[in-house]
């Protein structure tokens, strides 16, 4: 099945999702933000702790359904006596519901500004190799 990928997710976040079954995460990294923009509530996505450049066949992760999605803007202000700097950062907040574990069968490389997509098979059991 084809899934949009969120990569480089902290392993403890994935463990929390596995344990609690529902978890809200905030996406700020540009490649994951672009992927989050391509999703809708109800979509099933693939999450992995593997960095984007290393996602390839055999990469493992979890699949989760998006229960809620919010896109927002945060204003960040830094100031000292010498300067005042203001920046705006967009972020996505996704509430996810754990569906299971999966392994990538085929990774589709994305162009700049597009979501990363993989074909992944749900793992129902542990395979001995």
What's the helix and strand layout?
Blueprint: E1 2-6, H1 11-20, E2 22-27, H2 30-37, E3 44-47, E4 60-79, E5 84-108, E6 117-123
Parallel strand pairs: 1-3
Antiparallel strand pairs: 1-6, 2-5, 3-4, 4-5, 5-6
Note down, in words, how this protein is organized.
- With 129 residues, the protein is mainly β.
- It has one domain (2-119): Archaeosine Trna-guanine Transglycosylase, Chain: A, domain 4.
- The protein has helices spanning 11-20, 30-37; strands spanning 2-6, 22-27, 44-47, 60-79, 84-108, 117-123.
- A five-stranded mixed β-barrel has the order 1-3-4-5-6.
- The longest helix has 10 residues, at 11-20.
- It is globular and about 60 Å long.
- It starts with a strand and ends in a 6-residue tail after the last strand.
Supply the key terms.
2 helices, mainly beta, five-stranded mixed beta barrel, Archaeosine Trna-guanine Transglycosylase, Chain: A, domain 4
**How many domains in all?**
1
How many alpha or pi helices?
Answer: 2
**Strand fraction band?**
over 45%
CATH architecture: Roll
Order of helices and strands: EHEHEEEE
Mean pLDDT across all amino acids:
91
Shape: globular
> Which spans of ≥5 residues are poorly predicted at pLDDT below 50?
none
Rg is: 16 Å
Q: Summed up, what is this model?
A:
This protein is mainly beta and 129 residues long. It contains two helices and six strands, in the order E-H-E-H-E-E-E-E. The chain is globular, with a radius of gyration of 16 Å.
């Amino acid at each position: 099945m084809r899934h949009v990928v969120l990569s480089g997710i902290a392993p403890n976040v994935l463990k929390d999702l596995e344990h609690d079954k529902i978890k809200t995460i905030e996406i700020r990294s540009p490649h994951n933000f672009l992927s989050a923009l391509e999703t809708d509530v109800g979509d099933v996505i693939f999450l992995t702790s593997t960095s984007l450049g290393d996602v390839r066949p055999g990469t493992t992760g979890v699949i989760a359904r998006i229960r809620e999605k919010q896109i927002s803007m945060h204003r960040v202000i830094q100031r000292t006596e010498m300067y005042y700097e203001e920046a705006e950062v967009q972020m996505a907040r996704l509430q996810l519901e754990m569906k299971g574990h999966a392994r990538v069968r085929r990774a589709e490389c994305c162009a700049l500004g597009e979501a990363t997509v993989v074909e992944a098979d749900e793992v129902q059991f542990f395979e001995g190799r």
